[in-house]
Design goal:
Elements lengths: L4 E8 L8 E6 L2 E6 L8 E4 L4 E4 L1 E6 L12 H10 L2 E6 L10 H11 L5 E7 L12 H7 L3 E3 L8 H13 L4 E3 L4 H4 L4 E2 L2 H6 L3 E2 L1 H18 L2 E4 L5 H12 L3 E6 L1 H5 L21 H13 L4 E2 L27 H10 L5 H15 L15 E11 L18 E11 L2 E5 L1 H5 L4
Parallel strand pairs: 1-4, 1-5, 6-7, 7-8, 8-9, 9-10, 10-13, 11-12, 13-14, 14-15
Antiparallel strand pairs: 1-2, 2-3, 5-16, 16-17, 17-18
Helix pairs in contact: 2-3, 4-7, 7-8, 8-10
């Protein structure tokens, strides 16, 4: 039996900011949105200090399931998503086995069904992410993939990527590119420059990202197809995408909060939790990525949620790259809103609307007749990030110990309360 939920006096923010009102949910559907609603409810929520957002969508996460469930699995990843106000995710294909067969797609979709999170698998561009034989895109699409990608191991051969773009475009399947030239990276672990020189380790040169970003855009332009560039981190890539868009190339891109809020300085403490791929870059890069977010060059804010065990992250030089982020991405990104650099509807565009558009997925709206899929946020609630309280199996969160302002405190999907911040509500903040 679905819950009857009445949310009172809440502010709704979608493409615009709406006056405070009541929201009534029954049978999994938003039944009414009005100034004052008097209906029987199983759950009544005081929304006077809260803002209702459409469920966020993170189009770049790693759930490690199947094959590396000591790091994360679909259930814990979904729990982390809900705690961050994220109701839908696209999970990358570098699992074990990789997402290159119908069986693996069906496994992920089936396991995710009862989580309350819409988990959309991203298929491999090539079998086993080996960069050679293209996957059976027809079969993968029918099974339920939302896109294809080489994230985890980039396609090195330009001709293979060209063929993939054409084949995917014919089937209306988005292509997400991990822009990295492995021959240039050649074992680097932090940004090439101050970080690598100070730490006396191999650096990851920006040319690796910029070169493949340019390659993918050239291929998209010459084949008249679309390309989505993953986790943009350099000033060069931002400018390449900006110019390509100005010339009509069908290119979209994403970045993560750490690329517009942090620099390579964070990694100088030799804490592997601050290592990711691409790495934290320079202040110049940070400013450029931020400018790209603000002027629309960068379409989406994602997390690249990449869980690893504490044991794996213990050795700075040999630890795998990656940080978790679904539980903190909204709060971190709200820094832009609190600073007056971005409006809340613009942030919703980056974190809920555009990702679904790019992946050709249905939009989520807070309106009568729509499925109830929304998150309630206290924009002013200040909280300290504690890795031990993360819902993810992993603890490699770069905001650890830091105070953030704004938090998803209650998440509803399928008309049911799927997450509620017990500490928040017990403290009487609602």
């Amino acid at each position: 039996m679905k819950q009857k939920i009445l949310i009172r006096n809440v502010q709704i923010v979608q493409k615009a900011v709406f006056p405070r009102c009541d929201i009534y949910i029954a049978d999994g559907i938003i039944q009414e949105v009005a100034a004052k609603i008097e209906r029987p409810a199983d759950v009544e929520i005081d929304g006077s200090s809260l803002t209702a957002l459409p469920g966020l969508f993170d189009m770049h996460v790693h759930l490690r399931d199947p094959g590396q469930t000591h790091k994360e699995d679909i259930l814990t990843g979904a729990a982390a998503a809900l705690a961050g106000g994220v109701t839908g995710v696209a999970c990358m294909p570098n699992t074990i086995p990789a997402i290159d067969t119908v069986e693996t797609v069906c496994y992920i979709v089936g396991k995710a069904k009862q989580t309350g999170v819409k988990v959309h698998p991203v298929g491999c561009i090539t079998m086993g992410l080996q960069g050679e034989t293209l996957c059976d895109y027809d079969a993968l699409k029918e099974a339920g993939i939302c896109a294809i990608s080489d994230d985890g191991r980039p396609v090195e051969c330009a001709e293979t990527m060209r063929q993939a773009l054409q084949e995917a475009y014919q089937r209306n399947i988005p292509v997400i590119s991990h822009c990295e030239d492995l021959s240039i990276i050649h074992g680097g672990i932090v940004n090439h420059g101050v970080a690598s020189e100070t730490l006396h380790v191999k650096g990851m040169d920006r040319a690796s990202e910029d070169y493949i970003t340019a390659r993918e855009i050239i291929l998209a332009a010459t084949t008249n197809t679309a390309i989505h560039i993953a986790h943009v981190s350099t000033s060069g890539s931002v400018e390449i995408v900006r110019q390509a868009k100005a010339h009509g190339v069908q290119v979209t891109c994403e970045t993560c909060p750490h690329y517009f809020l942090m620099t390579e300085e964070a990694v100088l403490c030799r804490d592997a939790d601050y290592r990711m791929n691409p790495p934290l870059r320079t202040e110049e890069d940070r400013k450029a990525v931020l400018a790209g977010v603000l002027d629309g060059t960068i379409d989406c804010i994602v997390t690249d949620h990449a869980p690893h065990s504490p044991e794996e992250k213990a050795d700075f030089e040999h630890a795998p790259n990656g940080v978790i982020g679904m539980e903190t991405s909204l709060a971190a990104s709200l820094k832009l809103v609190h600073a007056g650099l971005m409006t809340l509807p613009e942030l919703v565009e980056k974190m809920a609307i555009r990702p679904r558009q790019i992946l050709h997925l249905p939009q989520v709206q807070i309106a009568p007749g729509e499925n109830a899929e929304l998150t309630l946020v206290d924009l002013n609630y200040c909280w300290t990030v504690d890795p031990e309280k993360m819902h993810s199996k992993a603890k490699n969160v770069i905001w650890k110990g830091k105070m953030l302002q704004g938090k998803a405190v209650l998440t509803i999907t399928d008309g049911e309360v799927r997450y509620q911040d017990a500490q928040y509500f017990q403290s009487g903040k609602e």
